[in-house]
Amino acid sequence: MSFISKRIKSIGYAAKGAYLLISTEASIKVQLAIVVIITIVGLYFEISSIEWIMQTLAIGLVMSAEGINTAIEAIADFIHPERHEKIGFIKDIAAGAVFIASIVAVTVGLIIYLPKIT
Ligand SMILES: Nc1ncnc2c1ncn2[C@@H]1O[C@H](COP(=O)(O)OP(=O)(O)OP(=O)(O)O)[C@@H](O)[C@H]1O
């Protein structure tokens, strides 16, 4: 198989993964709803290109972290379905990464919108 067709196949698997994430993970569905709301808010306040870029990066950061967290949870449950202190620790730090990304995203949102509503 050529380099190009291999890469195209990989993009197909990745797109399938994104679909699986959106169709199975409740937290990603909530984040997608937030994407729709924040996009409407951005259009309403006519935010600048830089603000759109910051907002898009913040959302992408959270959703990517959530996807990786979901994958880590799935691996943990697959390799060790029973409760174990180490599995709890691994899941907690993976969730911690999503928490940090979410704080960054909220901070970006506050920097963009607080001056517009005060
Ligand atoms: N096998 C386990 N052993 C020890 N602690 C666990 C185990 N599974 C989960 N936990 C604890 O429960 C928390 C929640 O884990 P869980 O896998 O249910 O994730 P979640 O955030 O509820 O995600 P989701 O709703 O997508 O499944 C973990 O962060 C960890 O503290």
UniProtKB/TrEMBL annotation:
Q: Which residues form the signal peptide?
A: none
Name the family: Belongs to the bacterial diacylglycerol kinase family.
**Membrane topology per the record?**
Multi-pass membrane protein
* Organism annotation: Pontimicrobium aquaticum
* Name under which the protein is recorded: Diacylglycerol kinase family protein
Instruction: State any single GO MF term.
Output: metal ion binding
Q: Coiled-coil segments, which residues?
A: none
Q: Which residues are responsible for catalysis?
A: E66 (proton acceptor)
